[in-house]
Amino acid sequence: MSSSTTINVPYCAVFLAAVSILLLRLLLPRLRPRKHGGAMNPPPGPWQLPVIGSLHHLVGALPHRAMRDLALRHGPLMLLRMGELPVVVASSAAAAREVLKTHDAAFATRPRTDTFHTMTRDGLGILFAPHGDHWRRVRKLCVTELLSPRRVRSFRGSREAEADSLVASVASVASASQGKAVNVSYLVSTYVTDAVVRAVVGGRIGDREALLASLDEGAKVAAGFSLPDLFPSSRLARALSGTARRVEDVVGELSRIMDAVIEDKRARRSGAGDEEEDILDVLLRFQHADDAPLDIGTIRAVIRDLFGAGSETSATTLQWAMSELMRNPAALRRAQAEVRGVLVGLGQSRVREEALPELSYLQLVIKETLRLHAPVPLLIPRECREPCRVMGYDVPQGAMVLVNAWAIGRDAASWGADAEEFRPERFEDATPAVDFRGSDYEFLPFGAGRRMCPGMTFGVIVTELALASLLFHFDWEHPGGAGGLDMEEALGITARRKNDLLLHATVHAPY
Ligand code: HEM
């Protein structure tokens, strides 16, 4: 079944709960929607119902898909009302350029939805931080210290060790019993999380399974559309919302894990030698800065944000890259031939990072994966800080602003009639070259502008290293054949695979 026809339960729940609120509202006139702006010429959008607004248009499909279908009818800049919340959606390269470049400053803050508020209850990091001095300071720290190219290079040894572990885990399943499928989804998620954890704290953590489970739950609940997000003025919405409780639980669990990680690091630091600093070392150094010390809540929140933002996204990319290669045997053969040829040329028996710049086709495979499967399909929501005119329409102050990077990556106007097909070669043909570094608005997997992803270099290298290793060491097959693989997406802040990717692996180059 295609995901566009899937009834997804959380949205039905939202719908039913919203209908209950509608009925109650008729009985309780005190429950009033919040007023937003007096826009003169608002963007067009679909017809609305009282109280629930446009929510009924989103039932039955994942939000990025439903919004793409609505945009085809209503235009590249569209106004929805989701409960009490005005939501402006940009769905073309031109609309994204206006939001992320022309009016970047006006849209550089994050909305204070109930979910985002709870997410930052135990400390404000970077992901959900409103635009302002705190965000500027932490962002600068991320860009110049924590995720700078030099720092990312310094984690190379731990990344390669984690890629070796990934290969060893696949090999052990492949050789343990003939015919047993490898759970690629689980193994790549574990690999990416371990690689990010090692960069942040310098080693693995004891609570790895708990961290994986919490990140997984966090990605599901942080989609930003829980009932209290949609009806912020309604206490009833909060009382009815199971999601709000799930967000509280996941925040509590993540805070517990972060505190244990920080305690453990403090204990290890007292006897530390002169090893390369990891990200937590740097943050703890800033905790004692003379001019503006970082408080412990911020440190806890920053590392939680890096775990969250770094793990799910890169793991999602790897899962879709392997899925697309299974469905496109010619691309799989070409990528495998390239990595095997390059490693023979370098005389290497396992993938080391110096081989990665030589793998030009593999890089195209990853670009094409990011184009078709933007891991954060609606980017992370922004909020309009001041009344703003975009493409001739007035965007009301306080509106949530979404950029549908998933739809933009598949827009035939930018990518041609075969936009829905997986064809890495399209990037070879493109003149001028199109890249994801934030200046080509038809291709925005990392966003653009001042809130653009600061972890891009790290995310790309983690993904390239694992994909090259999987293709070098193993031959892969889907039990149901190339055409039998389902491509259904899960609901969440990331658009990862709904079902685990289970593949057969045969060892090609022993580890
Ligand atoms: C394939 C991998 C990745 C993808 C596709 C990705 C994508 C994104 C996107 C779309 C945003 C929101 C941009 C916006 O609002 O315009 C974002 C923000 C962010 N990402 Fe990434 N990301 C990836 C990897 C990473 C990694 C590895 C890290 C760090 C370890 C990271 C850290 C962050 C942070 C801290 C933000 C928030 C920036 C801010 O609000 O100022 N990301 N990412």
TrEMBL record:
Supply the InterPro entries for this chain.
Cyt_P450, Cyt_P450_CS, Cyt_P450_E_grp-I, Cyt_P450_sf
Q: Name one Pfam family in it.
A: p450
Superkingdom of the source? Eukaryota
Transmembrane segment boundaries: 6-28
User: So where does heme get bound?
Assistant: C453
Q: Which UniProt keywords apply?
A: Heme, Iron, Membrane, Metal-binding, Monooxygenase, Oxidoreductase, Transmembrane, Transmembrane helix
GO molecular function: any one? iron ion binding
Family stated for the protein in its record: Belongs to the cytochrome P450 family.
UniProt name for this protein: Cytochrome P450
> Source organism lineage?
Eukaryota, Viridiplantae, Streptophyta, Embryophyta, Tracheophyta
Which gene produces this protein? LOC100828362
